[in-house]
Amino acid sequence: MSTFTRRALVTAAAAGTTAGVVATAAPATAARPGPRALFAAGEQESTMSPSATGAANAAAFMADVAAADGRQIVVPPGTYTVGQVAITGETINVRFMPGSLLQPDPSLHAVGPAGKWFQATNCDTRLYGLVVDGLNIPEGCWRSDGGELRMYDTRMVKMGFLDLVGNSTSLGTFGVTAKNVNEVIIDGYVGRDFVGRKDGTFANQAGKVNHLFIYECERVTVRNVTASGGSGEDNDFVHMLDQRATPTMHGSFENCHFIYNDQTRRCMKFQGGNWSLRDIHCYPGPDFVPVSANTDVGEQNLNCIDFAGSMGGTVRLSGSFIDATGYVVGVSHTIGPLGKVIVDSTTIVGGRRHAIRNNPEAPTVPQDIQTMGFYAAPTDNETELRDCVIKGFSRAIVMQGQRNRVVGNTIEDPAELWFQGGSSLARDFLELSGNKVYTRTPGAMSVQGRCARIDNFSNLEIYDNTLLRVMRIEPNNVLVPENTTHSTIFIDLLNTNATGFARNNRAPAGTTPVRTGGTGVALYQNQGHHLRPLVTTTDVGNITGGDDNLHTHAIPAYNLNTAGAAVRTTFTGITAPNANAKTLTVWIGTEDVMVKSLTPGIAGAWQVEVVLIATSPGNQRYTVKLIECDTAGSGAPTVAGVAVGALIQPSNAQIVVKTTASAVATNDVIAQVGVSESLEGRHFIFT
Question: Do the beta carbons of residue 117 and residue 81 sit within 8 Å?
Fold first, then answer.
C-alpha cells in the first residue's frame, strides 16, 4: 500500500503536469469557486506548518502572499496556529483545502489592536474555504481596509473574550470587517458563538459584536449566510454603516439565516446605504430563553431587523420569514428622516404579550411595553408595508411618519391594535388600503377601545380594509366566531385636524367600520362597482293641520367639510285631489330655502331637487328646483320654482335635507321617494 505525505502529493501533481497531464480547472459555469483536492498549475503550497509556532506561521503566510504575486496559495489540511498578520498593497489569493483549520496564537489575547488577527490594507483579497476557531482569544478575525474583498465558504466560531474586561480601547468582536472597500462579496458564511465583554454601556465598542461589519464601502453582495449564538450588549449579527453625508454604499443580502438567542440585540442593523434583502430567515434558536415567564422577549433583544440612525438610504425586505417572537419589534425604522424601509411579501411573526423586563440600557428600570410587528418612527418618510403577513404582537403595525403606505396585508390576531398611525406631530398622507384583519383570541383588540387608531394626518386614504372574525364549527355545522369581544370600532380617527377620505371599509355587524368623529375626513361607501345612494320609498304624508316632516335625509358630519364636496337630493310625491290648501317647504339644515303653495283641486305630482355644495368648512351654496304637474304628467306645470343661495350650516355635524307639508286633512301631501347621492363619484355612508 502506498503512503503519501502532503509534500509527496504536491510533488506528484507537479510531475503529472510535466509529463503532459493537464490539471483540471473549475468549470467555467460554476457559480463560484470551491475547494479542490489537487493543486492546479500555477498554484503554490503554503509554507505554513501545523507544527510551527503562531509567529512562524504568520510570517510564512505573509511571505507566501508576497512570493505568490497574485497566484493562488493552497493551504493543505491540518490545524495551524497563526499569530497576527498584517499585509499592505498585495493580492491575497488563498484556498484552504477541506480539513484545514486556523487557530489564533495566544499572543492575540488582548484588548485593542493587539487583539486583531488578520489585517489587509489596500489589498485585492480572495479567500476560499477559510475555517477558523477563535478559541475566545482575539477580538477580530479578518479585516480589510480599502481594496477589494471576496470570501467564499467561510466558517468562524468563538471570536471575542470570555475573561478580559472590555474598556475604552476595545475594538469590539468582529468576524469580518470591511472598511472603505470597493467591492465586498461574501458567499457562504457560517458563524456562531461570538461574545462581547459587557461593560454596562450600550453603543460603545466593548460589548459590540458583529459577524459582518461593513463600513462605508461601495458594492456589497452577501449570500448564503448562517449566524447563531453569542452574547454582548450590542450583539448584531450584521451591521451595515455609512455615515457619509450622501451614503453610497449599496448591495444585497440573499438566503441568510439568523438563529438568535436572548443576547442577540438585532439580527440585522442598517445605518445608511441602499439595500435589497431577499429570502431572509430569522428565528429563535435552541439557546433562546425569555427573560421571564411573563413575556416572550429575551433579555437583550430589541429590533430584529432595524434601519437605525438618521443616515440616508433605503432597506427593502422581500420574500422573507421573520420570526421575531423574542423581540420587542420585528422590523423597524427607528429614527429617520432620511432613510426609508419597504417590506413586501414577507411574514413577520411575534408573541402577543408585552415586553416585560428590566430595560437592558441604563438606568435599567423595569419596563412593560407593547411589542410591534412593524414600526416606523415619527420622523420616518415614505415607508411602505405591502402584501405581508403580520402574526401576533401587541400592536401589529405602527406607522408614525408621513407619506406612508400600508397596502394589501394580512394581520392575524393582534392582541391590542392592528394598526396605529401618526402621533402628536402633524403628518401628511397615509394610505391604508386592502388590508384584512383576522381576530381570533377572545378579548383581543378590546383594551384600547378600538381596533386601530389614526392621529393627526392630512390627506388620509383609508379604503377596502376588512375586519374578519375567525370562525369555528360547532355541532350541526354551526359557525361561531372565536372572538366576539373586540372593540366596536374597527378604525378610529381621533384628531380634529385629520383630512382625507374613508370608503368601503367593512366590519362585522355591531362594529363601526370607520369612526371619523370630529375630523374632516369624508366618509364614503362603495358597494362593488355600483353606487349606493340613500333611498327612501316609504310613503309619508302630513297629519291634519300643522307643518309635518315628510322625508328626511341626514348628510353625515364632515361629508360637506371640504370645498367642492357636493350632494344631490331628490324628493317626489303626490297631492290629494281636493280643494284644501297645501304648502310644501324645503329645508337644508335649519334654513327653509323654499316655500311653495301646491295647486288645490288636482291630483298633483311634485318633485324637489336640492344640490348642496360645500365652499369651505361650515359654508355651502345651494340650488333648489320644484315642479308640480297633474298626475297624468301631460299638461304644463302648475307650479314651478328655483331658489339659490348660501348657507352657514356647521359641517362637523349632520346636515339634514328634508321636505315638510302644511295642509288641512291627513295625507293631503304625501312624499313617496327620496334619493340622496354624492356628486363626486363616491357615495356617503348614510345613517
Answer: no
- In 3D space, the residue among 406, 464, 407, 415 whose CA is nearest the CA of residue 439 turns out to be 415
CA distance 145 to 85: 14
CA dist 364 and 654 (Å) reads 52
Confidence band for 633, pLDDT divided at 50, 70 and 90: low
Query: Which stretch of 260-274, 300-314, 413-427, 550-564 has the lowest confidence by average pLDDT?
Result: 550-564
Give the rounded distance of the alpha carbon of 330 from its chain centre: 9
| Residue entry with cell 405591502 | 386
Residues 46 and 56: their CA atoms lie apart, in Å, by 12
**N-terminal to C-terminal alpha carbon distance within the chain:** 96
DSSP letters spanning 534-571: EEE-S-EE--SSSEEEEEEEEEPTTTT-STT-EEEEEE
CA distances to 106, 379, 467, 488, 667 from 420, in Å: 54, 15, 15, 16, 53
Global pTM reads: 0.77
DSSP string for residues in 175-241: EEEEES-SEEEEEEEEEE--B----S-SSSSTTEEEEEEEES-SEEEEEEEEEE--B-TEEEEEEEE
Q: What share of the chain is helix, strand, coil (3-state, %, to 5)?
A: 5, 50, 45
Residue pLDDT, tens place only, 67-98: 999 999 999 999 999 999 999 999 999 999 99
474: confidence class by pLDDT, cuts 50, 70, 90:
confident
Q: Give the mean pLDDT of 536-553.
A: 93
pLDDT in tens, 219-267: 999 999 999 999 988 899 999 999 999 999 999 999 999 999 999 999 9
Alpha helices in 389-473 (DSSP H): none
pLDDT recorded at residue 52: 98
Specify the 3-state DSSP secondary structure of 532: coil
Assigned C-alpha cell, 630: 297633474
Enumerate the domain spans of the chain: 534-684
